[in-house]
């Protein structure tokens, strides 16, 4: 039997006990080093006072209340936390916020136009029913925005040899190309076929808008 004077039991609680509370950016830890960091998030500037160990994902969710980016694995393996940093897609669970001073961040909350018009990828996901539980969807959307930009800029992939790329990059991505370029984003519901169709349609529309070419997806 435990007594009031016993030291705390260091073992994890069994039977679904609460366990230790997650650390937030506001937690004060003895000896923690903190800095002020300036970020522009979805077009709005924020000055944050942060422990150097706080990841971008935790800063977005816990300090800025932007809970669109999800914490799936917290280890860079699922892509649920994907956001754009200076236009490039990243796993926000792997980045320390203190290293991003002055960066431009776009989360899923910032994809729609300010007046509320959905991003073409968001519209395509709805039209193609490209989600079930939706937990992976914010990461899939941000990753797809980055993937389409990379493809348009001519970045090669394991599917398209660099020598096969036209100067302006592939105008319309094949399903195989989309699967490869989005392979870092996992979906436990298995909505992959609809996700591929949605990204193909949005990518084809963007390519047609840019080149005047016929939409083929
Ligand atoms: S939560 Fe970041 S990759 Fe899984
Ligand atoms: S829609 Fe449920 S995890 Fe992808």
- Given helix and strand content, the structural type is alpha+beta
User: What hetero molecules are in the model?
Assistant: FE2/S2 (inorganic) cluster
Provide a count of the helices. 5
Residue windows where pLDDT falls under 50 for at least 5 positions: 1-6, 9-17, 212-217
> What is the mean pLDDT?
85
Number of strands: 5
Question: What Rg, in angstroms, do the CA atoms define?
Answer: 21 Å
Distance between the termini: 68 Å
Helix content: 25-40%
Main sheet strand line-up = 2-1-5-3-4
Largest sheet: 5 strands, mixed
Rough outline: globular
The sequence of SSEs as H and E is EEHEEEHHHH
Strand content: 5-15%
3D architecture notes:
With 217 residues, the protein is of the alpha+beta class. The protein is built from 5 helices and 5 strands. The protein has helices at 56-63, 120-127, 137-152, 175-181, 192-211, and strands spanning 34-41, 44-51, 82-85, 88-91, 104-106. It has a 5-stranded mixed β-sheet with strand order 2-1-5-3-4, sandwiched between helices. Helix 3 packs parallel to helix 5 (192-211). The longest helix has 20 residues, at 192-211. The termini are far apart. The structure holds FE2/S2 (inorganic) cluster (2 copies).
Characteristics of this structure?
alpha+beta; 5 helices; 5-stranded mixed beta sheet; disordered N terminus; binds FE2/S2 (inorganic) cluster; 217 residues; disordered C terminus
Topology:
Layout: E1 34-41, E2 44-51, H1 56-63, E3 82-85, E4 88-91, E5 104-106, H2 120-127, H3 137-152, H4 175-181, H5 192-211
Parallel strand pairs: 1-5
Antiparallel strand pairs: 1-2, 3-4, 3-5
One FE2/S2 (inorganic) cluster binds at residues 131-137, 187-189, 191.
């Amino acid at each position: 039997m435990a007594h009031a004077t016993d030291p705390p039991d260091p073992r994890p609680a069994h039977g679904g006990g609460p366990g230790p509370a997650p650390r937030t950016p506001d937690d004060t830890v003895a000896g923690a080093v903190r800095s002020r960091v300036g970020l522009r998030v979805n077009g709005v500037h924020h000055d944050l006072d942060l422990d150097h160990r706080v990841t971008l994902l935790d800063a977005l969710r816990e300090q800025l209340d932007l809970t669109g980016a999800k914490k799936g694995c917290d280890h860079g393996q699922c892509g649920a936390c994907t956001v754009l940093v200076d236009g490039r897609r990243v796993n926000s669970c792997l980045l320390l916020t203190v290293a991003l001073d002055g960066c431009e961040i776009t989360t899923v909350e910032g994809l729609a136009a300010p007046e509320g018009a959905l991003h073409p990828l968001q519209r395509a996901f709805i039209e193609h029913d490209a989600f079930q539980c939706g937990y992976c969807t914010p990461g899939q959307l941000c990753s797809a925005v980055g993937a389409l930009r990379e493809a348009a800029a001519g970045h090669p992939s394991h599917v398209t040899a660099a020598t096969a790329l036209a100067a302006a990059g592939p105008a319309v991505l094949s399903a195989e190309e989309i699967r490869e370029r989005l392979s870092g984003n996992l979906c436990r519901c298995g909505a992959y076929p609809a996700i591929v169709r949605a990204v193909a349609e949005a990518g084809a529309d963007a390519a047609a808008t840019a080149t005047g070419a016929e939409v083929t997806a």
